[in-house]
Amino acid sequence: MPLFWLVLIVLGLAVAGYVAGRGRALRLAGGDSRVLHSLPSYYGAHVALLTLVPAFAILCLWVLIQPLVIENRISAKLPETAIAESSTRALVMSDVRRVAEGLDVAVAAGAMTADEAAHMRSELTDVRNRLGAVGVALGSDVGPEVLRAAQAYRALAARGHLAMTLVVLTAALGGAGLGIARSRADFRARNVVETAVRYLLIFAATVAILTTIGIVLSLVFNTIEFFKLYPARDFFFGTTWAPSFGGGSELGILPLLWGTFYISLIALAVAVPIGLFAAVYLSEYASGHTRAIAKPLIEVLAGIPTIVYGLFALLTVGPLLIRVFGADGVGIMQAGTAVMTAGLVMGIMLIPFVSSLSDDIINAVPQSMRDGSLGLGATRSETVKQVVLPAALPGIVGAILLAASRAIGETMIVVLGAGAAARLSMNPFDAMTTVTAKIVSQLTGDADFASPEALVAFALGMTLFVITLGLNVFALYIVRKYREQYE
Amino acid sequence: MTDATIPAATGATGSLLEPDARTRRRNAAEARFRLYGLIAVGIGLFFLAALMISIFMNGAGAFQQTAYTLPIEFRQDVLDKNGTGDIETIKSVKTFAYKPLIREAILREIYRLDIETPLAGAKVKGFSSDLDNLFSDGAPATLRDMVLSDPGLIGQTVTVKLIASSRVDGYLKGRVSRESIARDKNLDAVHLDLVDELRAAGVVAKGFNLAFITGPDASDARPEQAGMGVAMLGSFFMMLVVLLLSLPIGVAASIYLEEFAPKNRITDLIEVNISNLAAVPSIVFGILGLAVFIQVMHLPQSAPLVGGLVLTLMTLPTIIISTRASLKSVPPSIRDAALGVGASKMQAVFHHVLPLAMPGILTGTIIGLAQALGETAPLLLIGMVGYIASNYPDGVASGFLDPNSAMPAQIFEWAKRADPAFYERAWGGIIILLVFLMTMNIIAILLRRRFERRW
After folding, report:
1. Which of A16, A62, A370, A378 sits at 20 to 30 Å (Cα–Cα) from A219?
2. For residue A124, what pLDDT band results from cuts at 50, 70 and 90?
3. Where do the domains of chain B lie?
4. What distance in Å separates residue A46's CA from the closest CA in chain B?
5. Which biological process terms from the Gene Ontology are attached to this UniProt entry (chain B) (predicted)?
6. Does B408 sit within 8 Å of A409, measured CB to CB?
7. Angstroms from B362 CA to nearest CA on chain A
8. Which residues of B touch A409 (CB under 8 A)?
9. Nearest to A262 by CA among A351, A319, A347, A189
10. What is the mean pLDDT of residues A25-54?
11. pLDDT tens digit string along B217-256?
12. Cβ contacts of residue A277 below 8 Å, gap of 6+?
């Protein structure tokens, strides 16, 4: 039974349970809802919750865990001989999975009977061709071990699926039965339902925590895996970045970090003065009318997807810079993709970020401080420079740090605008590359996940995560502390 | 504060009405400072204008497509040698066999219009000739599809619109010039002369390019046929996943944190965690998706389902933050009144607070969705780039599970390809994407205007 139908049946059972629970409670109360402890709908909801929650919890867990169990079982059964030289168990297992899926497709398409798929021998049939006929392309011929493993995989999966269906349906029916049996007039249905809903709410709130744990675990495990294959010292202190998928790569992070910081620096050099002056002007000088038009317009820049900025860097800003600084102009720029290109465009992207954060912070400075300064005869600019900005400084520093963390984590602009060469250079018109750009390039190739060239992306991701997290925590701490100061 | 008058200034310091040097300097500094602010705002607006102009100047071309209007004779001796009308025989005729039909048609036009061109006498080598470069590689396939869907066409002469090759298209749009094709081996100045004549005669013209909006992507060789339609569906299914998951989870989490959570260390941890998650670089969510959904759970690569899950995790903090803000803005008197007439805490929240906070929640959700719609980086890692989205999903399940692209991923894909004709498509794709984003934001603003209540 497909998953979809199983879900629908459980949902149907829940609806039926709702009606039955509500009806039974009312009937036992003699049709007078005043006799009931709770409103009739709570009795129904109680049954529906008992039907749905355990069944769906089991379903989700089963769907997540079953592949892992099957994988381990089959993998353990796979004989050493099935793993060819220059291959790994993980690769063979992915073959097994693909063959198993192929057999499923073939059976579904009617090209094979279920019996045939379960007992076919690779010595007798050309599995690759037969699967190819139904549109499943396999990279190589299927060995007898792989085919047998695939058949075992299918058998286990089918058995698991059947067991799951039975268990889930039993849980749903059992829950419904229990709920209906408990639906008596003096049953405190509302309290039970509210407690259950409360736990559901708590569960939803923990999704955020689970996400963080997921991020940390997926980074940590793969990073450890990477450091087993490649020394951590060479990674953190190496000055050459030269991955080659044939092996013998040099994977030093320093050139990437340098590129990242250089580009972020240029971006901040563009965004901070413009954003800050714009915020000061809009909050201290501009008339209400100007502010109502200019502020949302500048904030439009923040709503534009980064891919648009990336394209803008690659196709508009790059060629423009080349015309000025390229071979026909100053002659210090070789290609349109360069640190300057990416930095400039990233700066544009960050302007609204800096300006609206600073705007909030400047507005939070109490008016009495301005009035005091103006009353002493200071001009407005003197008030801003000597009273408002110093008072707002910690918050503004926080805003700039948040912007910096944005710049460091930005991907699309550097992938399209900064070039691909990892180098340590001072010339802002050279092509350089960043941590994020290399994560993308190392993980989008066809390399298998076990090679250091692919795993390095996780170590890069870990570095990126730690840097941005540090900046964020620090910045949020500053901003929050500052806000409390005037509240 | 005092009634005492200021003693008259001694010494000749001049009139009060005439500012002294120091005052003038200070006033000048004031004016300068003000000007800097104005310039900064101006630069911000200038960048916005430059970005928009650059998008529309470069992208408008994608919505037009050059096409030839030619009477094609579907010759029976080529398409159905036995004349039996048997569909299998017709199917056995390969696409390139349709090329001569197009060639004959264009030659007929050349003779009819009496155009002098060396191409008319060009040698035909096998199935290809110099004239073929005027047409898209997809043109013969268009004819074949027509014949396969209606075999009755064989033997007739029908006027058909056939799309031009990307070079000819670029020439009509001003992207390709005689100088720029000097080193091009596909197209010569001779071709362009012929195109000029044909254009004067109305055989070739630009028209609205509906296929760009609804059509599938095409391979590297056929930029003139690339469209956004399939990627749009991919984005649609992804947004469906994001909406169905992030709205309930986000609202539930916010209700708990705002209304029920006790003030303790765990709640604090969750709160700090959410504000930090909102600032984690999007690419890190891509790594999470790759490691958890693809490596561990073996969900299909490039599937909108996986993309949707990753974007859900990314959007959740945004939705939670805005939902909490709108829950907070519902005054406590509402809760107190509900509790006062005997509602339980849960009833007070679900029956009274939540409905009143709904406009704010929806606004926040739409803005979160708009953000997710434009996000590219995590999609790169779960394989939604590099995939040619050439097939429409055939059903809801396959829409979620079959490999697909998404709008921003499709734009990135085009930006990476070498042919400048794809750049025009990329800009055009951005226009479509921005139209979607703008619509969503306008809806959010209208919702806020219409339903927002000030207490």
Report:
1. A62
2. low
3. 65-207, 229-451
4. 15
5. phosphate ion transmembrane transport
6. no
7. 18
8. 280-284
9. A347
10. 88
11. 887 778 888 888 888 988 999 999 999 999 999 999 999 9
12. B36, B37, B39, B40, B41
Residue whose pair of structure tokens reads 């690339």 in the numeric block: B226
| CB proximity under 8 Å: B 201-220 to A | none
> How far, in Å, CA of B55 to CA of B430, rounded?
7
Q: Tokens 């006027």 — which residue?
A: B159
Give the model's pLDDT for residue B125.
52
Of B284, B320, B423, the CB nearest to A465: B284
Which residues are within 8 A (CB) of A96 and not within 5 positions of it... i.e. 6 or more apart? A74, A78, A146, A149, A150, A153
Is the torsion defined by CA of B111, B116, B117, B122 positive or negative? positive
Residues of chain A with Cβ-Cβ distance to B32 below 8 Å are 381
| Composition of chain A by helix, strand, coil, percent to 5 | 75, 0, 25
Q: Give the residue from B72, B201, B222 showing the smallest Cα distance to B138.
A: B222
Which structural domains are found in chain A, ordered by start?
3-187 (no CATH), 241-486 (1.10.3720.10)
Q: Mean per-residue pLDDT for A120-132?
A: 69
Contacts of A286 in chain B (CB under 8 A): 41
Is there a contact between A460 and A252 (Cβ–Cβ < 8 Å)? no
From the CA atom positions of chain A, what is the Rg in Å? 31
Band the pLDDT of A82: cuts 50, 70, 90: low
Q: Examine the pLDDT at B144 and tell me if it is beyond 90.
A: no
- The pLDDT of residue B7 is above 70: no
pTM above the 0.90 mark? Answer: no
Taking only residues 346 to 365 of chain A, the set having a beta carbon closer than 8 angstroms to any beta carbon of chain B reads 348, 351-352, 355
d(CA B378, CA A195): 37
C-alpha Rg value of chain B to the nearest Å: 32
Into which CATH architecture does domain B229-451 fall? Orthogonal Bundle (1.10)
